[in-house]
Automatic annotation (TrEMBL), chain A:
One of the record's GO molecular function terms: ABC-type sulfate transporter activity
InterPro entries: CysW_permease (IPR011866), MetI-like (IPR000515), MetI-like_sf (IPR035906), Sulph_transpt2 (IPR005667)
Name assigned to this protein: Sulfate transport system permease protein CysW
Keyword Membrane: yes
Organism in which the protein naturally occurs: Pseudomonas guineae
Annotated localization: Cell inner membrane
From TrEMBL, chain B:
Positions of transmembrane segments: 20-43, 63-85, 97-119, 131-155, 186-205, 241-265
Subunit structure comment from the entry: The complex is composed of two ATP-binding proteins (CysA), two transmembrane proteins (CysT and CysW) and a solute-binding protein (CysP).
Domain ABC transmembrane type-1: 59-262
Superkingdom classification of source: Bacteria
Function in brief: Part of the ABC transporter complex (TC 3.A.1.6.1) involved in sulfate/thiosulfate import. Part of the ABC transporter complex CysAWTP (TC 3.A.1.6.1) involved in sulfate/thiosulfate import. Probably responsible for the translocation of the substrate across the membrane.
Entry keyword Membrane: yes
Metal-binding is among the record's keywords: no
Protein name, entry field: Sulfate transport system permease protein CysT
Keyword annotations: Membrane, Sulfate transport, Transmembrane, Transmembrane helix, Transport
MF GO annotations: ABC-type sulfate transporter activity
InterPro entries: CysT_permease, MetI-like, MetI-like_sf, Sulph_transpt2
Membrane topology value: Multi-pass membrane protein
Length: 290, 272
């Protein structure tokens, strides 16, 4: 071994050794951020909720208005997420499988709701469908209620969650290319057969991941829904809005009890997310080997 | 990675058509309605609304708090991404999974939890009180809430890029005599900066529009701790649709210009 190689090796080793202290500091600070910033808020929700014992906790959750809010939240999620799922697949399909003019503009437009304030998302529907809105008078004549009712809540939820599924699918579908679909077509599959038997199994985990993120946001959306809901207790109150009302009434224990219900849902969503993510990584690793 | 357009694959017309119709109905036409509504105002009226001191104060607060929060995330996020990608240590998987908590947690829940922690009598807030300052009900609290809800953006955009940089490149630089700071400046920074800016702008855009997590901790005092989205809410509650629309348009236009600038900067950097 020549002396130059030796010096080089020592230098590389020294740079690694010098990193040791920095490495320890970084790991400790990562732990600090985690505990102070992520764990502590989580624990405070649970501890505030259980402050007066399990009895108060459960009575806050099983109270009629809370249950009505839960039902409305699930209904809004149940309508908006499937609609965005179908849209997400269609949009990702045309963006990732074809080249056409204006594609980058289309992608920007799909992402647009991410940079629009949720409050504005609510506002635009009020301007469109509200009593003073563009088609408000016509709606009133025909006795159709959109704002301060379920359709408005669903529309606002859809607006803020439009990009989630597409965003997850586009990179995945671009990476997978079109060869498998072409093979299916050449072997005689029609469009739907190709989609169900080739594309869907390939994008399954990405799709689940996108849906999980979409559901999380839809379930917790506050600003947009707050504008269009009208806050009618037991009727147009979603769970996050119910938390706000309880909190503003200084009923803190009840507010944190309902909040901890949402928190548990969020943790469950994180688990689902982790699981689908690990499946995607496996898929990507396989695609990389080929 | 092969990508070509294939005439064999069906569904172009169907999917593009559906995408355009759905997007128009749900997003584009409603947003357009807001601009049409705003167009009913004369310039003088529009100017009178957006130049009101209360609106300007909220504008300044919203954009500066979002900017500072995005910047803090730029630092904390880089640190977290680096640690999670480069090191294996006890608890790494848990931290990795929990980074996304702010995205999964409803913002209202984040809002009341942070308020409970950082209020003057709260678990953390009492230390601030001892030191003679307040966190909740001040711009500091607002920035804190925004930092929390936008935490995952920078981490998640940097992680894949960091994982793609081979360690050998840094070692080669070190072998050639580069000091750790030089390695960072000349090897890592150029590779990371575009992704960092993407994460920053995502966090910034989200922070400007954020509502749910902020209103609990803000205290919502006009001129002092009132954010722009809340001001839209206030105008709507007063049935002042023109006011709400004007502020909405102002917010979108300013956000758009800032994001465009960041985008231009990013392109400038990407050029060799």
């Amino acid at each position: 071994m020549s002396s130059t190689t030796l010096t080089l090796a020592t230098r590389a080793n020294a740079s690694r050794r010098g990193n040791k202290l920095g490495r320890r500091l970084l790991i400790i600070s990562a732990w600090l951020v985690f505990v102070l910033f992520l764990l502590l808020p989580l624990l405070i929700v649970l501890s505030e909720a259980l402050k007066q014992g399990l009895g108060t906790f459960f009575s806050a959750i099983f109270e009629a208005d809370a249950l009505a809010a839960l039902q409305l939240t699930l209904l809004a999620v149940g309508i908006s997420v499937p609609l965005n799922l179908v849209f997400g697949v269609a949009a990702a399909w045309c963006v990732s499988k074809y080249e056409f003019r204006g594609k980058s503009i289309l992608v920007t437009l799909i992402d647009l709701p991410f940079s629009v304030s949720p409050v504005i998302a609510g506002l635009v529907y009020v301007l469109l469908f509200g009593a003073q809105g563009f088609i408000g008078p016509w709606l009133r004549e025909h006795d159709i209620q959109i704002i301060f009712a379920l359709p408005g809540i669903v529309l606002a939820t859809i607006f803020v969650t439009v990009p989630f599924v597409t965003r997850e699918l586009i990179p995945l579908m671009q990476q997978q290319g079109t060869q498998e679909e072409e093979a299916a077509r050449l072997l005689g599959a029609n469009g739907w057969q190709m989609f169900w038997h080739v594309t869907l199994p390939n994008i399954k985990w990405g799709l689940i991941y996108g849906v999980v993120l979409c559901t999380a946001r839809a379930m917790g959306e506050f600003g947009a829904v707050s504008v269009v809901s009208g806050h009618i207790r037991g009727y147009t109150n979603t769970l996050p809005l119910h938390v706000e009302i309880l909190y503003n009434e200084y009923n803190h224990v009840a507010a944190f009890s309902v909040a901890s219900l949402l928190l548990l849902l969020a943790l469950f969503i994180l688990l689902l997310k982790q699981w689908s993510e690990s499946r995607i990584n496996r898929l990507k690793a396989n695609a990389g080997e080929e | 990675m092969s990508r070509r357009t294939s005439p064999v694959i069906p569904g172009f017309g169907l999917t593009l058509g559906y995408t355009l119709v759905y997007l128009s109905l749900v997003v584009l036409i409603p947003l357009g309605a807001m601009f049409i509504h705003a167009a009913q105002l004369s310039w003088a009226e529009f100017w009178a609304i957006i130049s009101a001191p209360r609106v300007l104060a909220a504008l300044k607060l919203s954009f500066s708090a979002a900017f500072v929060a995005a910047l803090i995330n730029g630092i904390i996020g880089t640190l977290l991404a680096w640690t999670l990608v480069r090191y294996t240590f006890p608890g790494r998987k848990v931290i990795e999974a929990m980074i996304d908590l702010p995205f999964a947690l409803p913002t209202a829940v984040a809002g009341i939890a942070l308020t409970a922690l950082y209020a003057p009598s709260g678990l953390v807030g009492q230390f601030a009180t001892d030191l003679g300052f307040k966190i909740a009900y001040t711009p500091i609290g607002i920035t804190l809430a925004l930092t929390f809800v936008t935490l995952p953006f920078v981490v998640r955009t940097l992680q894949p890029v960091l994982a793609d940089i081979p360690r050998e490149v840094e070692e080669a630089a070190a072998c050639l005599g580069a000091k750790p700071l030089q390695v960072f400046r000349y090897v890592l920074l150029p590779a990371l900066l575009p992704a960092w800016l993407t994460g920053f702008s995502l966090a910034f855009a989200r922070g400007v529009g954020e509502y749910g997590s902020v209103i609990f901790i803000a205290g919502n005092m006009p001129m002092k701790t009132e954010i722009l989205p809340l001001l839209i809410m206030v105008k709507l509650d007063q049935y002042d649709y023109h006011g709400a629309t004007a502020i909405g348009v102002l917010m979108l236009v300013v956000s758009f210009i800032l994001l465009l600038l960041i985008n231009l900067l990013q392109r400038q950097i990407a050029k060799p």
